[in-house]
């Protein structure tokens, strides 16, 4: 019997014991990874989704929830808030500076988004933590790092692949600024999740970054209504 434990075995001990889980074959994991994180973004990019574009995303989220629920050992740190919050605040403040400089040198937009003109953007900003940040972190951090440990069993390799695929998932926006920001974001969120093992903490950090960007003059590049 093969053992699947994306969480390290020492982590499983912290859960109160070992949980032996049958591992999907390598070919299936490769097929799943390619389908979910490469083919799906390409279908969106080439506008080949035959149904409303939100439906496949919901299906993907539900699929990841089911896989995690059936297989992953219970993580007591999943919704804990213990983290290096000083570092998170420093990264958030640094992003403020980066956005200011980016708009100043690479954009002709105003510094802040105009919510009075775009009510849909305002709504998206308000619900961003629940509608976007949380699903993305569950899929790209909790699911990804758990599911594909048998394929990417070196931490650095897993993080680099996550960065690339997280950026690639935003190909739909067809904007190099977004691809660059999400590439760096993939590194930040991956390290936060792996260091804390907390889905809540990384969701909060992602939410802060997302709300800041959607409230800035870069919002027109990062927001694309379905």
List its traits.
disordered N terminus, 66% helix, single chain, 226 residues, mainly alpha, globular
Explain the overall architecture.
With 226 residues, the chain is an all-alpha fold. 25% of the residues are buried. The protein contains nine helices and no strands. It is globular.
Average pLDDT figure: 90
Order of SSEs, N→C? HHHHHHHHH
* Estimated radius of gyration: 18 Å
Profile the largest sheet.
none
**Which ranges are low-confidence, i.e. pLDDT below 50, for 5 or more consecutive residues?**
1-21
How many helical elements?
9
Strand content: under 5%
List the helices and strands and how they pair.
Layout: H1 9-14, H2 26-45, H3 54-71, H4 85-106, H5 119-147, H6 155-168, H7 176-196, H8 199-214, H9 219-222
Summarize the structure.
Helix 5 (119-147) packs across helix 7. With 226 residues, the protein is mostly helical. The chain has helices spanning 9-14, 26-45, 54-71, 85-106, 119-147, 155-168, 176-196, 199-214, 219-222.
